TrEMBL record:
Keywords: DNA-binding, Transcription, Transcription regulation. Residues 193-298 form the HTH araC/xylS-type domain. PROSITE patterns: HTH_ARAC_FAMILY_2 (PS01124). Pfam families: HTH_18. SMART domains: HTH_ARAC (SM00342). GO terms for molecular function: DNA-binding transcription factor activity; sequence-specific DNA binding. SUPFAM superfamilies: Homeodomain-like (SSF46689). This is Helix-turn-helix domain-containing protein. Coiled coil: none annotated.
Amino acid sequence: MEPLIRFETIAQYNQAYQQETLHPLVTVIDLSRAPSPARQGSKLYFGFYVIFLKDVKCGDLTYGRATYDYQEGTLVFIAPGQVVGVNRSPDVQPKGYALAFHPDLIHGTPLGKHMHEYTFFGYQSNEALHISEREREIVIGCFTKIQEELLRPVDKHSRTLIVSNIELFLNYCVRFYDRQFITREQANRGILERFEALLHEYLYSGKIAEEGIPTVAQFAGLLHLSPNYFGDLVKKETGVTAQEYIQSKLIEAAKEKLFDYSKSVGEVAYELGFRYPQHFTRLFKQKVGLSPSEFRNLN
């Protein structure tokens, strides 16, 4: 088994690709012009953000086996602390680009303050972004602007311009992912239908009393999706967050159970997975505008 290759700094990453370090916190690498440090079965750890623009036929990163609607290119987003696997033939030369930047580059900048909003850094590898040729040209344009800035002598404007171009690129990716959610609308509906079926079975089969209140991560796992991707998909399709959707179904189940007058409000709360009835009461009143007892008496 190949050992884990760790990249803690941008300089280490550049060195692995035999590339000069123009800036200690950011780099753009043309993968087709540099020998890859990874081999079949290798695992790569990154201590910084990396975005790979890959040729989908290259096959050198393990990011899923699904058939996608766009085949011209693929963007894979990796956050600090993540590990990716390598699965390619030794005679295959990777094609594409890598943009890597250290978290220290964006600390104290507008991008640093809302970096967490780019949820696709938490997607699983098989939820990569598949882009059209026109979208690929835009991505290459963004990478080129960053590379051109790296080639200039460093001055007081360098960091601002580099970070601004990274932010511009990420905002384009938000648009591209919105398009991808739309082009996969039929597949997404199938996921939502399975989610609804799983959630209904969980709420009404007695599992909830034994296993507790359902979570977004729980159902994302059952659907073989990352919590971030699943949450974004539900929000795009329903207009509410996955958590809000689960809570709405939980309240519907609670309303039905409250019509069984042989059970106290506390018993209903326990049947719905709440360890403390007051937590159930608080959520119910927040969503319905009435306490469970008031709702029961009103009806």
